[in-house]
Amino acid sequence: MASSGAAQISVTEAALLGLLTRGEMSGYDLQRTAERSGGFFWAPAKSRVYAVLPQLVERGFATSREVVQEHRPNKQLYRITPAGRAALQGWLEVPPGVEPERNPLLLKIFLGDLVEPEVLISHVRTLHAEATALKRRLEALEANGAAEPYGELTIKFGLEWAQAVIRWSRSAEKELEARVGQAALR
Amino acid sequence: MASSGAAQISVTEAALLGLLTRGEMSGYDLQRTAERSGGFFWAPAKSRVYAVLPQLVERGFATSREVVQEHRPNKQLYRITPAGRAALQGWLEVPPGVEPERNPLLLKIFLGDLVEPEVLISHVRTLHAEATALKRRLEALEANGAAEPYGELTIKFGLEWAQAVIRWSRSAEKELEARVGQAALR
DNA sequence: ACCACCATGTAACAGGTTACATGATTAA
DNA sequence: TTAATCATGTAACCTGTTACATGGTGGT
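^ Those are the sequences you sent over. The predicted structure of the assembly is below.
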């Protein structure tokens, strides 16, 4: 088995190591890269990045070297080690689960009877707008042609997700409006 | 404004208070209810439930009374207070955002070039199976007719989500298989 | 004059998990 | 006799966030 002796790493650690497979980078680079490209599925706070990196070094998953610069602050460049690659590999090979949709939004809908229907409708409309914006952003990314080998698949996933939200919010809006209409007739 | 003086509460607190609007319950009841019905979008560990409940009492959002039982352990029953309702109301009125899909799965796809394509394909198939199972579970729930006023809408959201995953994994599987085929030709 | 970028970090806190601990009742 | 249900909690740990702190460089 590949995972028998493999060290456990967290999602953030996997993400960091994953980016490091693309080349030597500083904490600053990593955080920026994560936030921009692909960043729609993973974006830790920078404080977290700077906290995790030394841990990776300590555990032997990366090495660091200081680069002295003239007109900017010095920086640490991190490089993944074979042990790091192995740990990442192990993580990648664990089958992912369909996350159980732990979504505050769902809770707000579920408890919808506790607020005015208009509030709910406005929530749904906000959601629709946000999903549409996400979709546009992803379409733009897709049009650029992904630099990453599997970037496209990731974007497509995001698009399916956005589309699902759009579909749902359209039908939900209609249904909520119908309920308001019925209430007015009583 | 409704939220001006409203106390901040977390998602878990909102969920607990939300269930308490349905009636007096114990920690045990709450945890079980959350796990079953609707539980596909929210399911904290029981230790968390037992930790949060006394805090709610301390903050004046709920009251508790002990019920002495004969053939079972005694229990605490919690009841939501007007202040609790107000806090919940405030939380419900904050517009929800489209969560940025912080999904480990996405990361695994994104870094797909680091594992054998077969591993990726197997991941995608697992996902497909899980999404299908979720879909079936939700359809069964839907057929039962929801007890909660807005239960149906919640279920529909879950169905759209499941459907999106199914659609994506079907197309992803095809594409990955094609890549493997191409690689074999080289 | 002001803002964004480069670059790293600390401190305080929030929110959550797993594993451990206990122990009677009841249905298969 | 074995397992699930009822019922509550503690301890240790992990992961993550926001806010604070510092300070030069380079463009508008």
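The first strand of chain A starts at residue 62 and ends at 67. Residues 26-28, 46-47, 50-51, 69, 71-76 of chain A lie near DNA strand C (CB under 10 Å from a C1').

Shout if you want it in another format.
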